[in-house]
């Protein structure tokens, strides 16, 4: 990490942006910077085992140390190597030098070692400004060398830029690079990255900004914790993390140097500044030192785990939908989830020989003895990151009187200015009904809520209208025996016949209670699926059903078993998008897949009413005390009604029976239970939902 003379540039006060990464990296991966400026570090072989134990899949080093590169061979851990600053001039002046360097330091090890990126120099504009004019020529020569060696499709060439390269960073929409960095050099750099598909690499340290101005930057804001957010006064876009705002500022700054004719997305109709959304981003350094918080609770674990959660959320299938969206690559709202994100945490170890103040030597995630400085979960981080908005008391809906053309224009604008429109893409959970009015209402309301229900946030040139009664319909439904209705009309017919308990179901604005599942991404390959499957089963997923002899063991394939485990973990973690990443091995889907469901068996256990209430109560108590989950039949629970012994006992008996593998002995209950082979309902089990809300129906007695 380079030391900066001033951190004023960091005075950002905090939208998730489309970050990108080297194509060799999986969407949502977070790696580490493996620095070696120390005399007490473990040997590379031991470090590689440490990386594996902690599910770290990407590493950045600052040279081409052969012992490190060789230690990573045959591990599939992705490696970014470096051509250091002292070699940049040589590579710029001689294409033959660049070719020989690439042969000796890259091609020699590839593909045994999964080298996927080359950093040409590091923070050149700050630490080696005499190389400014030579930087891009060196990058071009290294890239040409890769072309000669046939490696240009697998390995990308970039250069890490310090965040202090910005002269203005707040508000992000006004961001610009420093005047001492030649605009021609920056324009050439951006052009090169666009041409080769490589990322604009940025070294950014939100915690430095906090230390510089804790009066205006809250702890919650820079550590990805819930907060009220800060709005850019020009665009109205609200930021819920400092990291988001810093990345957005980089995009706007890149937009100011883009060559004429390059693709841009207008960031504000009011002031017309352009943010570059067609240039990839990668955070090549981002870290925190507990040294600065001695005597206090160190916030670095929250930052690191929050960064991982943010990055993983950015790789969800809903984010991917935006990439091919008819609404374009929009700048996204800040509740988590850009198009693609990658980051490297600085640093793997505390390095005792680092120059600068003492904090520079205490950035490590691990001590040199490989014990953790603090706990970091590289698979899931800290869980989903979200703002803390107030409950909605008003809504923004489309004004159909303006016509489809104006609705489409306003819809495009909303999606491009912070509304999260992933749910209304084809195949997503709120795509139906596929009408301009429905899609516009969704986008308008999302934008309106993200902008604190400001009246100006529901104008859309007259295409929007504020309402003060929730645009929902209510259906009457009764508690359930895991049986589903197939359509709204059928459900209403059923409701008129037999149901008594009301619950709300949103129909005009597609709501967030969308059914979704997590399935295995078979493209990841069996080895990665197995590793992710093992992780899921070891971190809360109930995998008993896919053990040999289990009711979901067949089909005995990695994909089927991984899908079962991934989905079990995902559902247990409230369908958080970060709970279905598994380092790129999982994908969220919104149409029910073919997943073996142990809760939909071929036989059931029901109570015998004829034994009487006393025996049913005794058996019910026994079942609830021996493993059945009876929370749903407690007073206030979702299946408390009907409040009868036979209904409660049937629920408990069947839960116990299913949990015990449908063994006949698990449905005896001293004669109070009976096995049936037809679902105890007049409605057959189907896979369907109504506007994204599964409707479950209680057995209707005949």
UniProtKB/TrEMBL annotation:
Similarity section: Belongs to the glycosyl hydrolase 17 family.
SUPFAM superfamilies, A to Z: (Trans)glycosidases
Matches recorded under Pfam families: Glyco_hydro_17, X8
Highest taxon of source: Eukaryota
GO MF assignments: hydrolase activity, hydrolyzing O-glycosyl compounds
Primary site of residence: membrane
Keywords: Cell membrane, Disulfide bond, Glycoprotein, Glycosidase, GPI-anchor, Hydrolase, Lipoprotein, Membrane, Signal
Source organism (scientific name): Digitaria exilis
Lineage: Eukaryota, Viridiplantae, Streptophyta, Embryophyta, Tracheophyta
Membrane topology, as annotated: Lipid-anchor; GPI-anchor
Domain called X8: residue spans: 394-481, 516-598, 603-686
Signal peptide segment: 1-27
One Gene Ontology term, aspect cellular component: side of membrane
Protein name as annotated: X8 domain-containing protein
Gene Ontology BP annotations: carbohydrate metabolic process
Cell compartment(s), UniProt: Cell membrane
């Amino acid at each position: 990490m380079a030391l900066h003379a001033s951190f004023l540039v960091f005075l950002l006060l905090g939208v998730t942006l489309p970050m990108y990464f080297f194509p060799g990296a999986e969407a949502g991966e977070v790696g580490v910077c493996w620095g070696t400026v120390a005399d007490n570090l473990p040997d590379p072989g031991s470090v590689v085992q440490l990386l594996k134990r902690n599910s770290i899949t990407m590493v950045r080093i600052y040279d081409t140390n052969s012992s490190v590169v060789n230690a990573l061979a045959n591990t599939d851990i992705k490696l970014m190597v470096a051509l250091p600053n002292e070699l940049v001039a040589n590579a710029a002046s001689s294409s033959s030098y660049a070719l020989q360097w690439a042969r000796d330091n890259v091609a020699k090890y590839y593909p045994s070692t999964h080298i996927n990126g080359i950093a040409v120099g590091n923070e050149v504009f700050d630490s080696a400004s005499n190389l400014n004019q030579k930087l891009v020529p060196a990058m071009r020569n290294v890239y040409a060398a890769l072309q000669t060696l046939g490696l240009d499709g697998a390995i990308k060439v970039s250069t890490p830029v310090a965040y202090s390269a910005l002269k203005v960073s707040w508000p992000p929409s006004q961001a610009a690079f420093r005047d001492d960095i030649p605009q021609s050099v920056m324009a050439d750099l951006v052009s090169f990255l666009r041409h080769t598909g490589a990322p604009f690499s940025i070294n950014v340290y939100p915690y430095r900004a906090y230390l510089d101005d804790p009066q205006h930057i809250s702890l919650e804001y820079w550590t990805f914790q819930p907060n009220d957010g800060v709005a850019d006064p020009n665009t109205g876009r609200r930021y819920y993390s400092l990291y988001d705002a810093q990345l957005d500022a980089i995009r706007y700054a890149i937009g100011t140097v883009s060559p004429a004719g390059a693709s841009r997305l207008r960031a504000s109709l009011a002031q017309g500044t352009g943010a570059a959304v067609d240039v990839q981003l990668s955070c090549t350094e981002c870290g925190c030192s507990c040294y600065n918080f001695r005597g206090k609770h160190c916030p670095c674990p929250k930052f690191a785990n929050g960064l991982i959660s943010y990055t993983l959320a950015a790789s969800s299938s809903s984010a991917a939908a935006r990439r091919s969206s008819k609404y374009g690559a929009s700048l996204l709202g800040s509740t988590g989830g850009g198009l693609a994100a990658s980051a490297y945490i600085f640093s793997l170890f505390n390095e005792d020989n680092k120059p600068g103040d003492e904090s520079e030597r205490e950035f490590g995630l691990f001590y040199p003895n490989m014990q953790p400085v603090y706990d970091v979960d590289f698979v899931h981080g800290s869980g989903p990151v979200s703002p803390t908005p107030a409950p909605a008391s008003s809504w923004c809906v489309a004004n159909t009187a303006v016509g489809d053309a104006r609705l489409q224009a306003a819809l495009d604008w909303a999606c491009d200015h912070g509304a999260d429109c992933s749910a209304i893409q084809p195949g997503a959970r709120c795509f139906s009904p596929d009408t301009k009015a429905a899609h516009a209402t969704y986008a308008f309301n999302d934008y309106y809520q993200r902008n604190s229900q400001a009246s100006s946030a529901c104008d859309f040139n007259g295409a929007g209208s504020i309402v003060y009664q929730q645009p929902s319909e209510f259906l009457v439904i009764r508690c359930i025996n895991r049986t589903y209705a197939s359509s709204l009309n059928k459900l209403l017919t059923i409701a008129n016949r037999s149901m008594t308990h009301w619950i709300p179901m949103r129909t005009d604005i597609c709501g967030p209670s969308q059914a979704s599942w997590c399935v295995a991404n078979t493209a990841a390959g069996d080895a990665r699926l197995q590793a992710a499957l093992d992780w899921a089963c070891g971190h809360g997923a109930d995998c008993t059903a896919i053990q040999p002899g289990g009711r979901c063991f067949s089909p005995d394939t990695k994909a089927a078993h991984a899908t079962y485990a991934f989905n079990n973990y995902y559902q247990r973690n409230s369908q958080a998008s970060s709970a279905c990443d598994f380092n790129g091995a999982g994908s969220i889907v919104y149409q029910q897949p073919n997943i073996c469901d142990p809760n939909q068996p071929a036989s059931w256990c029901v109570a015998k009413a004829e034994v009487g209430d006393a025996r049913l109560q005794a058996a019910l108590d026994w079942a609830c005390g021996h493993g059945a989950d009876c929370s749903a039949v407690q007073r206030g629970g979702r299946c408390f009604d009907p409040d009868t012994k036979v209904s409660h006992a049937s629920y408990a008996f069947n839960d116990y029976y299913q949990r015990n593998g449908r063994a006949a002995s698990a449905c005896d209950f001293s004669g109070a239970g009976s096995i049936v082979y037809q679902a105890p309902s007049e409605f057959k089990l189907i896979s369907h939902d109504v506007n994204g809300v599964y409707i479950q129906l209680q057995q209707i007695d005949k």
